[in-house]
From TrEMBL:
SUPFAM superfamilies: Acyl-CoA N-acyltransferases (Nat). It comes from the Eukaryota. It comes from Cercophora newfieldiana. Residues 176-373 form the LYC1 C-terminal domain. PANTHER family: LYSINE ACETYLTRANSFERASE, N-ACETYLTRANSFERASE DOMAIN-CONTAINING PROTEIN. This is LYC1 C-terminal domain-containing protein.
Length: 373
């Protein structure tokens, strides 16, 4: 049959939602890879997606690959997306913090020749129904819009604030610490991460419970995706694959940094395609403050320099992060630029409660890059 949108019928009665089989999954990667692969080759991109599908986060049904296909041809893919199962925390004044299943929607794509027919919207409505009806009992889901704030909001995915900090190094920027620096940081390898993630999850659960039970909660429900090792390992796998492809086999050795006292740390992601080191998560321990985060940010700038990345990106920077960055800027000799802004054209966070009905006002905590998918 013809695959031209002008010569085939594309009404709701002509299409079906299905979970992709391996052949359809590869066809989907071939289609969206035309837009998303660069600067990798298409086969390298498909290799990355296959590798990610084998991570602990995605394997054994952890990621479900949905397609909308023409019912006359199951390989005529009209739109597609991925649904990644994640663990999250929910706390409210009426309920202590608890771990619940949640999900993220990613890689929403419609081939250019089929756009303008409402296919992605129709697919997402069907996917929402499918996810809401699963036995996983997911409480809520998130997605990150690259097409502005209105499209997904109309589909029941209210957008949330997207503050970020970009630290950009000019040529000649010196990352060396001053002799008077009160804090130093040590670098983290893969082996260091699981224990820190476990500690972080416990601390975050306690923090959400305390916040929800405080007098300032105003009846809000607090949510956060768990910063567990399964989530971090997905990012690390992605970064390592791209590094080997784009840097002639170079392996990523360091995944973050920790203060000497061990109470504060960061994880990071080497995004060689965007030429940025992206901070996945900032943890500021009790008793630590600006000096600790400043040392961690300096370590991130050094790592970025080592990989030839001119920028370090932090999502949802807290007060200590912002002040630590400002101190580095003051010491930067005009060779470190800071930009505090809101993302408006990419990765805009949106959240949908099960059934589309949020339990009153929702506060999304720890809305950092680790939760992105």
């Amino acid at each position: 049959m013809s695959t031209d949108a002008e010569t085939i019928s594309l009404t709701k009665d002509d299409v079906l939602l299905a979970e992709a089989n391996p052949q359809q999954r590869r066809l989907t990667w071939e289609l969206n890879g035309v837009s998303w692969a660069g600067p990798m080759s298409l086969e390298e991109y498909i290799g990355r997606e296959q590798t990610l599908s084998e991570t602990a986060l995605s394997a054994n049904g952890g990621t479900r690959y949905f397609i909308l296909h023409h019912k006359s041809d199951p390989n005529l893919i009209l739109s597609a997306c991925e649904v990644l199962t994640k663990q999250a925390l929910v706390a409210s004044p009426a309920s202590p913090a608890k771990t619940v299943p949640s999900y993220g929607i990613a890689s929403v794509f419609t081939p250019s020749r089929f756009r303008g027919h409402g296919l992605a919207s129709h697919m997402l409505r069907l996917v929402q129904e499918a996810v809401d009806g699963t036995t996983l009992n997911t409480q809520f889901g998130a997605l990150y819009s690259d097409i502005g704030r209105s499209f997904y909001t109309r589909l029941g995915w209210p957008d949330f604030p997207s503050p970020q900090l970009t630290m950009q190094m000019e040529a000649g920027y010196n990352t060396a610490a001053a002799d008077s620096e009160s804090q130093e940081a040590t670098l983290l390898t893969d082996e260091d991460i699981p224990a820190l993630c476990s500690r972080d999850c416990s601390q975050l659960q306690a923090a959400l419970e305390q916040r929800a039970g405080s007098g300032d909660a105003d009846g809000k429900t607090y949510v956060a995706f768990l910063p567990d090792f399964t989530q971090m390992a997905w990012h690390f796998t992605r970064a390592s694959y791209v590094a080997r492809v784009m840097r002639e086999g170079r392996e990523v050795k360091y995944r973050g940094a920790r203060t000497a006292g061990g109470n504060s740390w960061v994880y990071w992601d080497h995004d060689l395609r965007e030429n940025k080191l992206k901070i996945l998560r900032v943890v500021v321990g009790e008793g630590d403050g600006v000096a600790a985060v400043k040392a961690l940010l300096r370590a991130a700038l050094r790592e970025a320099q080592d990989w030839g990345l001119p920028k370090v990106l932090v999502w949802a920077p807290g007060e200590e992060t912002s002040l630590g960055a400002l101190e580095l800027w003051k010491e930067g000799g005009g060779k470190l630029a800071l930009t505090f802004d809101e993302r408006e054209d990419g990765s805009i966070p949106s959240l949908r409660w099960k059934g589309g009905e949020a339990p009153g006002s929702v506060a999304w905590e720890a809305n950092e890059y680790y939760a992105w998918c």
